[in-house]
């Protein structure tokens, strides 16, 4: 009988701490790493020769949106095949729980852009804990942990209203945050450029973050602006952390729009200064010059009041359309105006629901308008109506200098801001398939912007520490055997904006809880992932 289940032999072990690699063997039994050392005198049911390969902890994605997609596609190929073994979901203020039965349809409509074509979302759970149990029942190829979304809680209590909560409503929101933390949430997320988060004031967020602080959780924020209001938005996030006494995670940090390029130098300095006075603030980032969001985000804040149905009603009224057009052309104080920041020609249609408009996927809004015989604004409005709001876009808004500056900063960790997609459906952002291989291939091997060991720290132990994931993120005896084996000479991302559905090269094995989900560069189809709850492994 073999001593252990798997032995990985002769690999260059990068343990996730940032230390230089060490050549040694890794022995795995019952889902855990049980022995580390050179030439281990053990036998395994399975032995993997990792000569010339890097053996490192599985990548932990701190900013993922697979809450919904894992229910339809638990294999999560686009994540697992790039080495992701743990996804943290519930970001940008939207989680799939808690659900108020009286507002379930409102929440479902809010989520509609992210529901796969032809799929039907049934919100069969109510509490946060019930949602996590539903994920466990369905299984997943990688581990999953979740934040609770401020937007979801606001919808539960007060719908998509453009106002401050009453005293009673705020107390109910605080109760729901506490209940979700007790049932396993890692913390609270906000999406302050999206409804209904955009309608909240800073004090509301401080009050909710204080509840999170009592439970030892994290406040993760898609801040109120990443363009003209970037500095003020970072200040607000730091203020919330300082006054609530909670760690702050600034999501997918960037400087959007040409007039704001270079401002990441100031925002990173702000984070450093905040930490010097005791505010625990960090950030995550994907290594691309384009972002991705919903087409409806191009419209001004007032248009979103009441939810998606109300938005579509306003789009049918000529006078309200013209008001939206004026706001886009002239701007609204405090609002991130993506059209002005990027230009119609730099905003691309990523996915639609109907066959009628499938021909527009991969086209810019300027190109789509010409194809439709409309001006760009009219095309935007009519497309939202035809697709019932379910349109995703890719926006070219950042510059390479900011991407590189943030990437190499010690307060940055790596995240994808993606969700596990079904291969060959739509034209998602290439980060869905290539985030981690792009950094390891281009920025580490080819350009030397980061040391290999530092890059892997940003992908493993740093997010594990940040979100309190016990027993993960390091190659250590007793830790869960979430492991990636890759060829450092061959690893490369292949996904492009025109052809995003391409798996990377060079990632040969991915183990989740000691089980090979990727073997010799192929997905094995197994679902060994665990649901990770706050405070538990």
In the CATH hierarchy, what is the superfamily of the domain at 1-57 and 427-527? Urease, subunit C, domain 1
What is the number of beta strands? 21
Number of helices: 18
**Topology-level CATH name of the domain at 1-57 and 427-527:** Urease, subunit C, domain 1
Distance between the termini: 29 Å
Strand content: 15-25%
Q: What's the alpha carbon Rg, rounded to whole Å?
A: 22 Å
Query: What is the helix fraction of residues, given as a range?
Result: 25-40%
- Architecture of the domain at 1-57 and 427-527, CATH level 2? Roll
Poorly predicted regions: none
**What's the CATH first level of the domain at 1-57 and 427-527?**
Mainly Beta
Largest sheet: 9 strands, mixed
- Given helix and strand content, the structural type is alpha/beta
Approximate shape: globular
Average of pLDDT: 96
How is this fold's topology laid out?
Elements: E1 4-13, E2 22-29, E3 32-37, E4 44-49, E5 54-57, E6 59-61, H1 69-72, H2 77-80, E7 84-89, H3 104-111, H4 128-138, E8 143-146, E9 148-149, H5 150-158, H6 167-182, E10 187-191, H7 202-214, E11 218-222, H8 230-244, E12 248-250, H9 264-276, E13 281-285, E14 290-294, H10 308-315, H11 318-330, H12 338-342, E15 347-351, H13 365-372, H14 376-386, E16 392-396, H15 400-407, E17 412-414, H16 431-446, H17 452-459, H18 461-466, E18 483-486, E19 507-512, E20 515-519, E21 522-523
Parallel strand pairs: 1-4, 1-5, 6-7, 7-8, 9-10, 10-11, 11-12, 12-13, 13-17
Antiparallel strand pairs: 1-2, 2-3, 5-18, 14-16, 15-16, 18-19, 19-20, 20-21
